[in-house]
Design brief:
It is a single chain. With 537 residues, the protein is of the alpha/beta class. The protein has 22 helices and eleven strands. Strands 8-7-6-9-10-11 form a six-stranded parallel β-sheet, sandwiched between helices. Helix 15 crosses helix 16 and helix 18 crosses helix 22. Helices cover 52% and strands 9% of the residues.
Length: 537
């Protein structure tokens, strides 16, 4: 089946995007002064000779973001659609005058440039195109670009016109007083923001202090060295342990970056490099250095040896990143969270501040401008005062949300048989407590103390005699976050996996208890658990 020309990939240069933006402005029916945007800007005294150029540049950036964020739209038929005079007139009328877009005219243009025959309909379905979203998705990108240019009052006015309710827009058209009130609201907000940014710009030293970067590198290096020497040496780094003899040397001019292996991973690193250049630090990742030993030893050493870390939360909820974030929390190391568009934050990490990334193109535009105010509020998890290590006769169970009842009930019974109270990370089924009660097992489930789940989990791990962690890659990220916390706190744990299941790369090579059936697990678990309990008592 020959592919219609309208469905061939479009080569989009900066010049083409500018031409489309120019068409939108030139085909708008009204002069600027006759639009709601023009009246508002005139009242505010913000119409400048170069305003059209500024707006054209904004539209060009919005189009670039649009085709980058929605590559399925990068077709010759859709670029021609945006250049159509009727379409340009509809879009221009909306962004400058908040005129309702005529969907019939838009549909007619789409049919003209993409076609409405059976072949076209099949291609639309095959490529996952939602014709109803083509214009709304562009307007959302336009709004996002405006929101990153709020230092220019004209752009703030345009954003206000896009964001206001239909009722307010009607009132602005009908009343100069209402229009003036909206202008005062916008300018007041801009003044407050400018004052905050001025404060941030004049307090670079304070941000450096917050990051621990306000002193000579020699001083930072000495502090990290002292922290390394004071850190517990048991388990991972003790003689004969997994990371015995691993180099723990201060890297005062570096910061650790935790992210999954993906084709676009360097985009984040390049943006961070540019944004943090003024702080005199460079990024380091686990694959930058060829150190011998287990990968987790290298990562833990980097987390412990650098002033802070940056952790990228992605749509895949990469288990290695959550494990490494947990290690940083357990070690008490400062961290910055950056979240990919549409990524869900695991329940335990919810409530922590993060920097949202909607696209790497947008990241390159905005991170450098936003990094200072964001770093002023850098996430540095500080739990409430922790109980003494191993001070309670408890054991933590992190089940990974895998076969929760079948796994937890026998584990909890055997733990109780050793005289300990099982503390279970969560009950996603809502039925676990009932079955444990039927089995006569005294237990606790995280989430009932009034503290945050993260604080409660960290305290439970610290106070427990042992932890039990189900580490299959299919497990939820909270389990790996909790496991990382236990490693950072240097608390003993027992890793369990079902035979022939995949593991996150950071966990591969660690000692795990494998089982093929729950009957077999009951036979092997109690002996192994008892041995560990005696070892760490």
């Amino acid at each position: 089946m020959p592919i219609p020309e309208s469905f061939t990939a479009a080569a989009l240069s900066a010049g083409i995007l500018t031409n489309i933006a120019t068409d939108i402005l030139e085909h708008h029916a009204q002069a600027l002064e006759g639009t709601l945007a023009g009246r508002t800007l005139k009242w505010a005294g913000l119409i400048e000779p170069n305003f059209d150029d500024r707006l054209r540049d904004t539209l060009s950036k919005a189009l670039g973001l649009y085709f980058e964020t929605h590559p399925q739209y990068k077709l010759t038929g859709i670029t021609a659609f945006f250049r159509d005079p009727a379409v340009a007139r509809q879009i221009g009328g909306y962004i400058l005058d908040r005129r309702t877009i005529d969907q019939g005219e838009i549909r007619q243009a789409l049919d003209h440039y993409l076609g409405s025959d059976a072949i076209t309909k099949a291609l639309i379905q095959q490529r996952g195109l939602d014709l109803e979203r083509i214009v709304p998705d562009f307007l959302e990108c336009y709004r996002r670009v405006l929101s990153e240019q709020l230092s220019a009052p004209q752009m703030a006015i345009l954003l206000e016109i896009v964001d206001q309710t239909d009722t307010v827009i009607t009132e602005m058209r009908a009343s100069e007083e209402r229009l003036a009130a909206v202008v005062r609201q916008v300018t007041g907000r801009l003044d407050a923001q400018a004052e905050k940014l001025d404060s941030i710009d004049t307090s670079l030293q304070a941000i450096k202090q917050h990051l621990g970067l306000d002193r000579p590198q020699e001083t930072i290096a000495e502090e990290i060295k002292a922290a390394l020497e004071a850190a517990p040496r048991g388990a991972m780094f003790e003689p004969g342990g997994l990371c015995s003899g691993y180099p723990l040397r201060p890297m005062a001019d570096r910061y650790f970056v935790a992210q999954e292996f993906s084709p676009d991973r360097d985009d984040l690193r390049e943006a961070l490099t540019a944004a943090l250049a003024e702080f005199g630090v460079q990024s380091i990742r686990a694959d930058d250095l060829l150190w011998t030993g287990h990968i987790l030893c290298k990562i833990s050493a980097m987390i412990q040896s650098t002033p802070f870390g940056v952790y990228e939360l992605t749509t895949s909820q990469n288990r290695n990143v959550y494990l490494e974030l947990g290690i940083a929390m357990g070690l008490g190391r400062p961290f910055v969270l950056v979240k990919e568009k549409d990524a869900e934050v695991s329940p335990l990490a919810q409530g922590l501040d993060y920097y949202p990334i909607d696209s790497y193109l947008e990241l390159r535009y905005e991170l450098g401008q936003k990094v200072r105010p964001f770093l002023a509020d850098i996430a540095n998890y500080r739990p409430q005062a922790l109980p003494p290590a191993g001070s309670r006769r408890t054991a933590v169970i992190a089940h990974g949300d895998i076969e929760v009842i079948d796994f937890c009930v026998p584990m909890a019974k055997m733990i109780a048989g050793h005289g300990l109270t099982p503390i279970i990370l969560s009950d996603p089924t809502g039925k676990l407590a009932r079955y444990l009660e039927l089995e006569g097992v005294n237990h606790q489930i995280i989430g009932g103390t009034g503290r945050t789940r993260l604080d409660e989990t960290v305290a439970a791990i610290q106070a427990a005699r042992l932890g039990v962690y189900r580490v299959e890659k299919a497990g939820v990220p909270d389990t790996f976050l909790a496991l990382g916390v236990s490693m950072g706190l240097n608390r003993p744990g027992m890793l369990i996996r079902k035979a022939n299941t995949d593991l996150p790369s950071d966990v591969k090579g660690l000692s795990t208890l494998e089982f093929t059936s729950y009957t077999g697990l009951e036979q092997s678990f109690s002996e192994r658990f008892g041995h560990l309990l005696r070892r760490y008592s």
